[in-house]
User: Fold this.
Amino acid sequence: MTKNPIVKGKLVCVALNDSEQFNAMQAEFSEAPYKSAPTQPVLYFKPHNTWSTDGAEVEWAVTEGQAAQSMVVGASLAVVFGQECCRVSQEEALNYVDGYTLVHDFSLPEKSYYRPDIKGKCLDTSAPVGAAVVPASDVQDPQALTVVTQINGETVNETPVSQMVRGVAELISTISYIMTLQPGDVIAIGFPGQRAPVKQGDKVSSAIAGTASTGLCELNNQLGQ
Assistant:
């Protein structure tokens, strides 16, 4: 597996943070097994075996000894921490950020968000993280950024950070009360609700729009055959 130079500790991902997806699921949330919409961020981890980096090939999923029939991908703005962050307010949250990069989350299609999807989310090499970080000093407002993803050169998602249910500062504050965040920890703040389907051999590229350092913020991967 390709080691990533950015992630040193935890890779925390936020699910159901796309407001379009969240709003569209309100009727579903009122039914079993949910019974109500989540009132706190829905979090999941991408463990060490999933970590990869820019330019690396992503393994096609194998389940029960056979190649998976389908996979999907989403891209997220990623917050990289430069110092220990524990129980901080929204107002001071961004002071702990070293910079921003990108995360690709390749997974099996999700059918439910009620329980963490270990099988679909913990696939080897399924979480490439950008190999470079845009310094926080270069980003005046992370809420003004947009993550753009292309598959084989065709744009499949444009996700403004402002479209997220919970913004960057709010997420940092909330998560810092759940767990201490250490230097080198990364939070993927939210993926598009409509993950894009991918095929073996597809090339997936994402970039951050809205900063002069966009060129440092690209993430390119190819699915294995």
